[in-house]
Fold each of these.
Amino acid sequence: MSNLHDIPVTTRTGCGERPVLRERGQREVFCGLTGIVWLHRKLQDAFFLVVGSRTCAHLIQSAAGVMIFAEPRFGTAILTDRDLAGMADANDELDRLCVTLLERRPEIRTLFLVGSCPSEVIKLDLARAAERLNARLLPQVRVLSYSGSGIETTFTQGEDAALRTFVPLMPHTDARQLMVVGCLPDVVEDQFRRQFEQMGIADVVFLPGRRASDVPAIGPNTDLLPAQPFNGDTVRALVARGARLLHAPYPFGAEGTTAWLEAAARAWGVTPAAFDAVTAPARARAETALARQRPLLAGRSLFMLPDSQLEPSLARFLHRELGMRLIEVGTPFLDRQMVSEELALLPEDAVLSEGQHLERQLDRVRAARPDLTVCGLGLANPLEAEGLATKWSIELVFSPIHGYDQAGDLAELFARPFARRARLAV
Ligand code: SF4
């Protein structure tokens, strides 16, 4: 996938902001369809129907390959040459396919029509298709649509686009509640819910929840606590519905998790003593787990190529809690509203870059020869062949990494390449 705007590298600074290297050039990032892989696992009553090509089908089939033993809750309506040439009415075909699918799978309550590059190129209007199908299928099934196309989205933006579709459906509430925004594995959601409850914060909702049909309410007494830095559009839509955004670093590592939980605790008037009583044991466990990984990571240099938008948060964790030396922290988009707290915690000497210009970034990786490079799947093998240790960023969105009890596992994901090399060297 390439971007035609091959403009020179520029450095941008704003009032009180750290400099950012802006890159616009060839990209090497998955498209937003990838989000279906973790969203379909979470939303147990939803089906994701990609309206796309065989390439799109291959992408989600191979990305979700480990799931084939279960009845999948995703599929691809493949646009044929006749659709692309305008010789068949793709809308009629799509309606017919959706109705057949829903007859076969009566447990589905929400059907997402997911746009792709081909559906956008032929200007197939999936929002109108959803409206048309809703007129026929509501209230048994609700049809929603969003774009996961590589023209419009990268990798993690698919989740943001999917969650954003819930916001107009949310009923209004004046009740006080805490809303955690971002797809979390059930086990992590349960841990956070328990910790909030123990602090006395009982009215907690998660977006997304386990059922797409259970749409939470929203209103002026809702506090938003984002759990993923890449859901900025959803958060802004929720703020436009009156909710209040709590700013915090993300719950990666002992420090990040404490700061994230503290943001909610402060907003809800939890006393420091009550907060410590709830968090101290889990925090101590996390610190012990991190201490085990630190000898493998401390002092090692790290280069993060832009991929998942988790990069500033993970860089903060790897630097502050594990002693890694940051050379460059790249992110596909820098959404300052979502990562302001993280940026404040990054060391001054780390280069922060936004966007991608593949050749220039690879030149910098080769010049720096970092101990570890975090990158997409397509770059890992070539860099490994050049003797550079790599970590696939996609693993970081597929693995449970949030919260105290996952802190050690998160560190271990980065320590593994060093442990493997150490074993090979013996
Ligand atoms: Fe490729 Fe576009 Fe389909 Fe993604 S949506 S798999 S980038 S064709």
Amino acid sequence: MKGVFLTLEGLDGSGKTTQARLLAGFLEERGIRVRLTREPGEGLREVRDLLLRGEALSPEAEYLLFSADRAEHVRKVILPALEEGLWVISDRYLDSSLAYQGYGHGLPLPWLLQVAGRATLGLKPHLTFLLDLSPEEALKRVATPDRLERMGLAFFRRVREGYLRLAEAEPGRFRVVDATRPVAEVQGAIRSSLLPLFGESPHLP
Ligand code: TYD
């Protein structure tokens, strides 16, 4: 595999999407070919509608739908781009399921990981940026917080704790960034973490 696979993770409202776009722009300016993508929806678009239209689903069904989308995402989008030597930046990936369906909804991690092994063909990100902030902060930033409010703060506290545990368990892959800092500072922290991947010193703006 010739490319580099980066993921952004965090609560709704943590600023992942903004940071993913800024990062893609930064890499492209350096002549790196980038594929910006996200979950859910790039694998199976219908699954995104099904998942986000708000119908109550069991966590098991939710996880299997996210996994079906991810299986297609890996095979149709991520792996082909990596084979071509692109840098893939995904706004959410498997860690979202481990945090939301695992820690948030209480599904057993061994089952999630067993399904994920086949669904993702074992593909792991080279680096994962966890944009960390409290659910209270996150809620303030979300334009339409209905979904968040419905899930309740306790759920998002578990999701946040879950993310932090995942990061602790794999310090080599995760970089935890304080997402309450200004956008430019968060981006600066992300770019600095990439220095070792460049193999030369990049010209940071
Ligand atoms: P989206 O509108 O893409 O939110 P965001 O802007 O935060 O990425 O909706 C994704 C929602 O789905 C978000 O609340 C997180 C949730 N989700 C899971 O619960 N499990 C998963 O595996 C993924 C990929 C997302």
